[in-house]
Amino acid sequence: MCSQTRAAALMANIPRADIDPSGVFKYVLIRVHSREKGDNSEIDIVRGYGWAEFHADIYDKVSEELEKGGQLDCECIGGGRIQHDPQDKKIHVYGYSIGFGRANHAVTTEQLKAQYPDYEVTWDNEGY
């Protein structure tokens, strides 16, 4: 008998990090929660894209997609910027979001290291 909830099964299939293949761009750290009664599972995901003028643009698009089925709820827990250099295999996380505040860059870098194991992933709280 499987005790995993539908929400937990959905969360298991959500990529922990999805960022543009290169460049400097805004990112948000999103906490995804189960809406199912008795299920307090949650995951943190990183999303960063160059098309976004504001951090909220990323959050709005991602949360709308994830919340569609009614099993998941999203909360933005901060933002910043990412510098992604695929040629040198380096990712640097820094800065903050005016609207959402500074994300916990240590959490962000752990998600990115899992997605990009052969990269040097660093962070600091400097810059905007």
TrEMBL record:
It is found in: Cytoplasm. The keyword Chaperone does not apply. Keywords: Cytoplasm, Hydrolase, Protein phosphatase. Substrate binds at residue 26. Its EC number is 3.9.1.3. GO terms for cellular component: cytosol. SUPFAM superfamilies: PHP14-like (SSF143724). Monomer. It comes from the Eukaryota. Belongs to the janus family. The keyword Zinc does not apply. This is 14 kDa phosphohistidine phosphatase. It holds the Pfam family Ocnus. GO terms for molecular function: protein histidine phosphatase activity. It catalyses: N(tele)-phospho-L-histidyl-[protein] + H2O = L-histidyl-[protein] + phosphate; N(pros)-phospho-L-histidyl-[protein] + H2O = L-histidyl-[protein] + phosphate.
